[in-house]
Write a structure and sequence with these properties.
Shape: globular
Number of strands: 27
Number of domains: 3
Distance between the termini: 57 Å
Largest sheet: 7 strands, mixed
Oligomer: single chain
Helix content: 10-25%
CATH class of the largest domain: Alpha Beta
CATH topology of the largest domain: FAD/NAD(P)-binding domain
Length: 418
Amino acid sequence: MTYDVIIIGGGPAGLAAAVSARENGAQDILILEREKELGGILNQCIHNGFGLHTFQEELTGPEYAARFIDQVRERNIPYLLSTTVIGLTQSEEGVQVTAVSRENGLMVYSAKAAVLAMGCRERPRGALNIPGTRPAGIFSAGTAQRLVNLEGYLPGREVVILGSGDIGLIMARRMTLEGAKVKCVAEIQPFSGGLKRNIVQCLDDYGIPLKLSHTVVDIRGKERVEGVTIAQVDEHFKPIPGTEEDYACDTLLLSVGLIPENELSREIGVELSPVTNGPKVNESLETNIPGVFACGNVLHVHDLVDYVSEEAAQAGKNAAKYSANAPARGEEIPVETDGAVRYTVPSRICPQRMEEDLVLRFRVGKNMRNAYVCVAVDGKQVLRRKRPVMAPGEMEQVKLKKEDLQGAKSIRVCTEEA
């Protein structure tokens, strides 16, 4: 069983990549999805706010996913559900994919190109080292979202949320609407990790306090959570004695970050970024493994699903082109970062191979006002753009003209204070 392109993951990234691959000439495409339905995390995101960039209208998560699922079915792109990929290796044909399902058992596929679109998972509580016992009533925000939206189960009545990621902010509103009392949202950083609009619509509109530079230092309760203690932290994230506050609650939700699902990427030898924990890719979204492309939240955690779809369409297009005629890799140069820029996607480019303008996406590491984004090629500034507001929770992007990059030996992206 040999395919032109195999796509691992049937969420928003995988669906958009599949549609784009078919539209760009790939005939034999297969989507492998471990859940029992396509759509990924969007199936439990019943709030609106999706699709404004892609469809110019506001949709819920399931509605947004349904648009792409319909496109996949209209193009007769095959997919396998409840199928888990357990192995990814290089082969003479390109990539060998080993998968397993209850219905089909163990399966081995070959592909000329593969697209990694596995998404991300929530950071577990174990990574936080919160002292205290292990009572019932502690959930990740995503688990709570699934319980409320898909299973009709309310996890608790009095809630404290640790972490101000977008899922945590959205669940503060969702739990409130379901009749729970959200006491506060504590965030260890001096800034929120979520979108500004979610802070306003999910916290401010409901009078839920956001306590920046605070964290949970104790959890009380034996069988069930009975309360938590939060405290202010210093610049080294160490609790400051005397700042403790006690909250009686029966539920603690954790919204403390997302981690790209890259176990398969590691297995095949994909080079990962220490900043994003996702693959390092070039301008084609191709990893260091020839024919293996990455997109969506497995590459870096996005703020808007519209950008996931846009990026995935690019990955699908390039995977289709690679499967038709694998191009030789030219010399690639790293994209250097400075100032508040934490990383860029892509992290390296091959100027000689570029056929169109380059979109560089990045995040900053602190809140900035009236700052400048600057790009220099071979030491010469080619872009300087003023940004009224930049925040770690929101992704930034710049577009560079391909003629400015021809023959480049170095490229540098930085921020400058106003």
